[in-house]
Amino acid sequence: MLDENEFIRSHLTDIVGILPILQIKEIIDLLGLEDIRCRIGQFDSDILPQYRPYFEKWLTNRDGFIRMLSGSIDYVGSEDVVRMGPFHNIYCLVQNQYLIENDLNHQNLLNSKLWYSLTEGVVNDAGWSGSILASRLNKDQRINNFLIANLKSEVTRTISVRVVNLACLIECRIWHPREFVFLYEILDNIGMNIQDLLGEIHVGENLNR
Length: 209
Hints:
The chain is an alpha+beta fold. 40% of the residues lie in helices and 25% in strands. Strand 7 (160-164) and strand 8 (167-174) form a beta hairpin.
């Protein structure tokens, strides 16, 4: 028997044939029910000029973006992927003016990959690897509890973290707005860990000191 998410995906793929526009307004309304403040983003007014060339690829795709007004994430963009999907890539940006995508120090600081093992749908173990941030995420009990409870969900298993120019990117895949709302707590917790780590490291300084 299909669960709710599988039914939605099957319906969208088989009946519609293409992935519809991600309903940003629906996400905003659903987040509002959880007292999470956000609104539809305006690229020219919400993004400072020095960030626009770097954030354009994450925030100016077909479906628009969300300006977060509470929590640890600054912006949420999306991109529909039909070639390998169909699904929506979700891009959560934690802005930082000092981050450089190709800086090995910044990669070692932030790039985090989720790993897990399942046996007959039961989570044996899960965690993060690849960076200083990964070690920090492994110590966050809220994140651990979410993973243990929800790794059977495909959308949970798509979460990853990496540095991009002027931001840290938390990425995942969804098929329906409700799936992003389902993930939001863990995404925001990851964002909080990113902010705390960058505040402690002072990433604009020499990380090797």
